[in-house]
Amino acid sequence: MAQGATVSSSRSGDIAVLTVDNPPVNTITAAVRADLSAALSLLEQQLQSPRPPAPQPPRAVLLQCAGKTFFSGADIGEFHGPPKEAEYRTLFARLEALPVPVVAAMHGTVLGGGLEIALACHYRLAASDARLGLPEVTLGIIPGAGGTQRLPRLIGVEQSLDLILSAKPVSAQQALEIGFIDAVIEGELAAGALAYTRELLSQGKGVRPTGDRSVDPASASEPALARLRERARRDFPNREAPLTAIEAVQASVSLPLAEGLAFEERLVNRAKATAESRGAVHMFFAERESRRVRDLPAGATARAVRTAGIVGSGTMGGGIAMCFANVGLPVTVLDADAGALTRGLQTISRNYDSMLKRGRIDAAEKARRLGLIRGALDYAELGQADVIIEAVFENMDLKRRIFTALDQAAKPGAVLASNTSTLDVTEIARATSRPQDVIGMHFFAPANVMPLLEVVRTELTSPDTVQTVMELSKPLRKTPVLSRICYGFIGNRMMEGYAREAERMVLEGATPRQVDAVLEKWGMAMGILAVFDMAGIDVGVNVHKANAARYPPDPTYYQADFALVEAGRLGQKNGKGYYRYVPGDRMRHEDPEAIEILKRRARQLDVAPQTHAEQEILERCLYPLINEGFRILEERVAQRASDIDVVWCAGYGFPRYRGGPMFYAETVGLATILDGLERYRQRFGELHWRPAALLVELERRHKSIAAWEREQAP
Q1: Are 661 and 625 in contact (CB under 8 A)?
Q2: What one-character DSSP code corresponds to residue 200?
Q3: d(CA 79, CA 506)
């Protein structure tokens, strides 16, 4: 048996078996490519000149991977270095050119380059639980290792683009039905793949190079391509990669494989240079990095979390409980009111009913998850929980009373967490005799869906507690970002200026739809005024009333919200807010009544009417948000600029392809941001528009954020 660092070669009778083992997910790194190349060289020698006493050459080759998955994809770390496509093209061509059948046996999550290497094999098998896809457009690029040229030779242009533009993996059975794999293997994959390969040989089946096939021109009809282009523009606004993918796949109809691969390479390298690709790749690495806490001592260890408790059975508490139950962790939901507890548990059950109806879970899974959630009315029933999360409304006195009770009921070493979105966790911790065990765990609504988890540590929080929560985020399938104490932490603190200007502009005469449409066209998942309607305008009003002393002396500050709530307009919950809503229809309808209320409040405040170009709306919302991000970075509230980007992309609907607010600022240019802030400062005054000191410093020194961060490193 020949052996490389990541590739082993063995024989099973007359079948050569190449097994790749590159933990954790068999990424096709440079080392894997080198070892595969060496293994292919040995095979090529055996197949070209078999001489006794050398063993008989193999009659087939089986390519498989050890571990939990077949190749998971290309090495994304190479995206911004010298182009590597030629290496993939050469390696895959050698596989395809072998004079004996080459069979790929796939399992796990087979994505991008992992699927593309299989397309270069002659036959493709998949375990029954495998999932296969080409998600490259979500990274602002296109399949660059042959996917746009080989896949349409198997299933045609239209079906190939359906798979590429969806960017979502399909099941093994779906892949079989679509036609790009040959069989689904039930049971043990290695044994099934060997049996399948032996059957091929017994039937006299030979090589079947994908590249020798032609693409059916009928699968690239102009009506189909027009539909796909419209879909690309609709599903991926402001992005070029999906349209580039269409261009590449369409070329497979007329170009032979070698020319098509060269054309694909030119297009993918063009895509890599775009801002959308750089932004999306930045976010990929930013989310990995956000899990790393820079200053934890080497001895910090996470405590085991096997059971959880939630205080509060409302929307947030129920959603957090589902997070635990969804991953098999038992959770007790406590409420002081029996009626509220019953309603909360019923809401959880209805949420699972909704998932059941949509086919996301079956009845057995619903029953299993519900069986992990139990209700309680007495704090003593939380006594064995490893982590307890308080999820009641934002009132410091109430939270302090709850933590005093938890201090008495919780076992030693339990993590006591608050889901607060604004309040000082240090003050909450001081209500206990164990402040070292207290931390903030700020989930985002709906908690069972949104990926972001702001982890808020105080100066009293122990390293073990921080480590426990950061590691707990993995099984909960959350993206954690660590924050230090400040009002609003990272996300909500930055929200203040963003939303302030949106509200000010509707007082100045812009319609809610005009403001939201500009933000959504630019890429925000939802306009900010529509967000307020969805969350409940009164929620924000109550927060601002409770924290009035924290806000600047501006009589117009958030007065659009106040005016609407005073008129009984709370948002979607009662069918009227910035927009009007019809029962059973969550479409946003413009409402003259709301506009008149806003105009009336503007007259009371002497806010002069103005007109608003799209660029002004965009700048007035985004520039304060970015400016506050620089203050947060300078104050060390966030560990790193990329953490701020993760918060806004994972929790607030900032477009990933723009890389988050801090990355976007450098894309636009710090000078542009600073000039804009100065322009609005001259127009509106110093109160809201003073540039952050760090922004001014970086622009004066012509220094990037990354360079500044390197200077700050201990």
Answers
A1: yes
A2: H
A3: 43
Strand partners, 483: 456, 638
Angle, CA 355 vertex, CA 350 and CA 357 arms, to 5°: 90
Distances (CA, A) of 558 to 395, 626, 684: 20, 19, 16
What distance in Å separates the CA atoms of residue 477 and residue 454, rounded to the nearest whole number? 13
Q: For residues 213 and 633, what is the distance between their CA atoms, to the nearest angstrom?
A: 55
Residue 556 CB-density burial (10 A; 0-12 exposed, 13-18 middle, 19+ buried): middle
Among the listed residues 367, 436, 373, the one whose alpha carbon sits nearest the alpha carbon of residue 407: 436
Give the DSSP H or E segment for 29. Answer: none
Both tokens assigned to 172: 């093994």
What does the alpha-carbon distance between residue 28 and residue 7 come to, in Å, rounded to a whole number?
Answer: 11
Q: Which residues of the chain have pLDDT under 50?
A: 1
Q: Is residue 203 left, alpha or beta, with left meaning phi > 0 and alpha meaning psi from -120 to 50?
A: alpha
Question: CA-CA distance, 175 to 163, in Å (whole number)?
Answer: 10
Cα torsion through 250, 254, 255, 256, rounded to 10? 120
What confidence score (pLDDT) does residue 666 get?
97
What are the φ/ψ torsions at residue 454 (nearest 5 degrees)? -80, 120
Report residue 257 CA to chain centroid gap. 34
- The confidence score (pLDDT) of residue 170 equals 96
Ramachandran angles phi, psi of 150, nearest 5°: -85, -40
Give which of 485, 499, 431 is closest to 454, Cα–Cα. 485
Identify whether the C-beta of residue 689 lies closer than 8 Å to the C-beta of residue 680. Answer: yes
Phi and psi at residue 144, to the nearest 5°: -115, 10
Read off the amino acid at residue 434.
R
Question: Are 345 and 333 a contacting pair, CB within 8 Å?
Answer: yes
At 1 the pLDDT is 41
Which residues have C-beta within 8 Å of that of residue 553, sequence separation ≥ 6? 687
Taking the model in full, what pTM does it have? 0.92
How high is the pLDDT of residue 54? Answer: 62
Helix (H, G, I), strand (E, B) or coil at 332: strand
Structure tokens belonging to residue 380: 């003593």
Q: Which structural domains are found in the chain, ordered by start? A: 2-273 (3.90.226.10), 308-483 (3.40.50.720), 491-636+669-710 (1.10.1040.50)
At which residue do the structure tokens 């009007």 appear? 580
Predicted confidence at residue 305, as pLDDT, reads 97
Q: Distance between CA 170 and CA 236 in Å, rounded?
A: 20
Backbone angles phi, psi at 244, to 5 degrees: -65, -40
First and final CA of the chain: distance in angstroms? 49
| Tokens coding 368 | 């299993």
Task: Quickly count: other Cβ atoms within 10 Å of residue 491's Cβ.
Answer: 23
